Amino acid sequence: MLDGRIVGALRAIAGDDAVIARPSELKVYECDGYTLEKRIPEVVVLPRSTEEVARIVRLLHEEDIAFVPRGAGTGLSGGCLPVNAPVTIGTSRMNRIVEVDYVNQRAVVEAGVVNLRITNAVQQRGLCYAPDPSSQQACTIGGNVAENSGGPHTLKYGVTTNHVLGVELVLPNGEIVHLGGAVEDVPGYDLTGLVVGAEGTFGIVTQATLRLVRQPEAWKTLLGIFESVDDATATVSGIIAAGMIPAALEMMDQLIVEAVEAAFHFGFPTDAGAVLIVELDGLAAGLDQQVQRVVEICQTNRARTVRVAKDEVERAALWKSRKCAFGAVGRLAPNYCTQDGVVPRTKVPDILRRITEIGQRYHLRIGNVFHAGDGNIHPLLLFDERNPDEVRRVLAAGTEILEACVALGGSITGEHGIGMEKIAQMPLIFSPADLLVMSQLRQVFDPARRCNPGKILPTPGACVETMRPRRQAAV
Ligand SMILES: Cc1cc2nc3c(=O)[nH]c(=O)nc-3n(C[C@H](O)[C@H](O)[C@H](O)COP(=O)(O)OP(=O)(O)OC[C@H]3O[C@@H](n4cnc5c(N)ncnc54)[C@H](O)[C@@H]3O)c2cc1C
Fold first, then answer.
1. Is the model's pTM score more than 0.85?
2. Pocket lining for ligand 1, CB < 6 angstroms
3. Where is pLDDT greater, at 184 or 196?
4. How is residue 454 annotated by DSSP?
């Protein structure tokens, strides 16, 4: 138990209203989007500035207390779960866009800025922040940096690491450091690149310098309706093989289409095996020829229909359907667990067949909505957390899906990170020597392992209280 003296010291630094210690209020912070594991922090503190973060972290360093950085809590791998760490430091009040340099196409933002706010702030000047996770209406830049988040449009534009030029970081001893900067190439080791994707284990990112990109002159968004996932996947391969890199290639299978249609009434046929969203962008000249080529490839692969969004309203509705697909599955079951494996693009039909077979064997309904162009699958395993046997089957099926991804030459995460969810699967892709090197690297930033302990790397003795049936979070 954290002693009252520490809570008092936190109040003295951040103010009374920035320290949450009442159990009913702390419950909000008991999990992220991965709801299979829950743990309530002892105290949550919401600083307003880098200086406050540094003073809080210095205090915790002096008192040898572990802590967890938290953004919006939309993570899908239990990354901000307080595992053996009593204090959660949330960035929700650090939400200023500090500076926009339109000429050099850069923005400096605080860690708690919500992803979509950046594009909203700069789009009138023809710019945008390209990484667009489907959670972009809620997730923060700090969380995006920690998870190296992707999104539908990262097929063409790259993931977060390709758009972060520098970070301001409060190290676990409370020291403030600046890594990278506004220029393209900084001499020396790419320390910014190390911090991006470190899942909050190297310190707390307080600000980031982001690259802005010019919005394309034009775009065309197509919807292909297919009888089967195999036909839709063959279309994805066909488009890439034809030398085109669409801005996005997203797929939803029948179960997800049913849920999305019930929620948004876009007009998807609920008997279709799969729908494919293809977005092409770039110079207006030549775009229509590309559209024609994509339509032909869809037809070659037996598309039932192919339709081009006729205007911006229809395009926005289509993207809303896709980006809110996770939320729509609430109509199918009280809970879902998302897996985030990756396979080589050509292996998508194989992994989807494996997922169907695994679902049948475990008597689970599994829907698929995913970044088809990247081979990044998102099977949603539906369940009811009040049914312990179903929870057990979800955990076992999820593990088998990740094992199948690795067996097909892929990996255990495309964008949601390891968190505490996939720690046990790390040895599937890394040798003991690899894990040791990563552990030593972490040690450089956080020798005492007080910053987000129990994440990414197996830590002896770490565990969390869990949903029924009890499950050790980390070994
Ligand atoms: C409906 C839905 C759709 C999603 N779609 C996508 C998608 O398309 N692509 C994708 O990549 N992800 C997606 N996600 C996952 C999630 O939104 C991302 O991982 C996102 O980056 C998390 O941001 P957050 O602010 O919610 O971070 P949190 O969940 O609060 O934290 C995530 C991790 O980041 C760390 N962290 C947070 N802030 C900081 C900081 N300032 N400094 C250091 N570490 C920090 C935490 O400790 C934790 O380890 C989706 C989630 C949901 C619920």
1. yes
2. 32-33, 68-76, 79-80, 91, 111, 133-135, 139-140, 142-144, 146-147, 149-151, 199-200, 204-205, 326, 415-416, 452
3. 196
4. T
For 334, phi then psi, to 5°, come to -65, -30
Report CA torsion sign: 340, 345, 348, 351: negative
Kindly list the strands in the beta sheet with 218-226, ordered across the sheet, starting from the edge strand earlier in the chain. 305-308, 218-226, 274-282, 248-253, 366-371, 379-383, 335-338
List beta partners, residue 92: none
In the structure, what pLDDT confidence band is assigned to residue 364 with cuts at 50, 70 and 90?
A: very high
Query: What is the per-residue pLDDT across 249-285, written as a single tens digit (0 to 9) for each?
Result: 999 999 999 999 998 888 899 999 999 999 999 999 9
Phi (first) and psi of residue 119, to 5 degrees: -60, -40
Ligand 1 atom at shortest distance from the alpha carbon of 74: 26
> In sequence order, which residues have a C-beta less than 8 Å from that of residue 33 and are 6 or more positions away?
73, 74, 75, 76, 135, 338
Tokens of 195: 């911090």
pLDDT in tens, 415-439: 999 999 999 999 999 999 999 999 9
With tokens 């199918």, the residue in question is: 332
- Give yes or no for a contact between 434 and 457, defined as CB atoms under 8 angstroms apart: no
